[in-house]
Amino acid sequence: MRFLPEPPHRHGAVVHGAAAKTGVLLVNLGTPDAPNPKAVRRFLAEFLSDPRVIEIPRPIWWVILNGIILNVRPKDAAARYASVWMAEGSPLMVWSRRQTAAVDAALTARGHAVEVVLGMRYGNPSLASAMQTLRERGCDRILVLPLYPQYSASTTATVSDAINALLARTRNTPELRFVKHFHDDPGYIASLAARVNDFWEHNGRGQKLVLSFHGLPRRSLDLGDPYFCECQKTGRLLIAALGLTPDQVEITFQSRFGAAEWLQPYTEPTLKELAKNGVTSVDVFCPGFVGDCIETLEEMAQEARDAFLAAGGTQYRYIPAINDSAPWIDALTSLVERHLQGWPTKAARSPDMAAAEARELQVQREHALELGATD
């Protein structure tokens, strides 16, 4: 079939228009279902097949991906995932679920009646299943909020690609809004600063603070992707919020892949250089990750630490991501509220709205009777 099946519907049972439900779809990158080579291979195949993630001609990349990467990388990556896997599952999944539940509860506490669900761009729960859940719950207005503070074509834009592909196969399309970025949102910056300050209050402060963002090929910047600039702005705002001077902080980029030049300075070489130049203690924080994951817990908390200590450093401390910290949940909830403005979301309805809904339901029931439908 060209179009996906619609959720079960009975005439007169659903309120349409202004009184319909509003949904919030929080989106993160995704994660393997298990820390084993088979699950990792399945996840990498979907992730690395996205043309926005790897901008190499498809025939050439297909050979590299299926002939080399998917035969070599899953075993090593599975071991890395296993080293950080939590009792509840993948760290990214654990923190994303907790954030979703916390935002849902916070919106309810603020008087909103909205449906909040989690979807992953790759893997499970898929965006298709998340959108289906919202539609089955009667949501005719959906706010899509990718949990990527800094916009990139290889992350944020892939979410809109996937959602729009779903809409192309949907008969009754909902009203949609997308959040593009929140790299300079005051609440987000304040939650980052609160996390760092809390860590320093309990553990003391190192000689240098290293702010490590996920890297991208340098070519993306040259072609007009704003990611690098947005990372720099986040860094500047966080430095100011912490009351630091630029010379006390290094802004770097991690997770290089392949031989091409990526955004610089690179994180691990910077850490080694700091150690060789007499910096003995560093605190490392990853502002671009709102939830801890393999890139923070394995790459930064383990691999980068080992590199710094091997180069002569004596103290390396990873500062956890903002995860489900109270300042971040408050900021994320406020961000959702701002983007929901103009849509009816309040749990407490005015008498006029209640009367209007009652009239609308009555009209629908009468129409259903005319069609021979039953309640």
TrEMBL record:
GO terms for molecular function: ferrochelatase activity; metal ion binding. It comes from the Bacteria. GO terms for cellular component: cytoplasm. Pfam families: Ferrochelatase. InterPro entries: Ferrochelatase, Ferrochelatase_AS, Ferrochelatase_C, Ferrochelatase_N. Catalyzes the ferrous insertion into protoporphyrin IX. This is Ferrochelatase. It comes from Pigmentiphaga litoralis. The lineage of its organism: Bacteria, Pseudomonadati, Pseudomonadota, Betaproteobacteria, Burkholderiales.
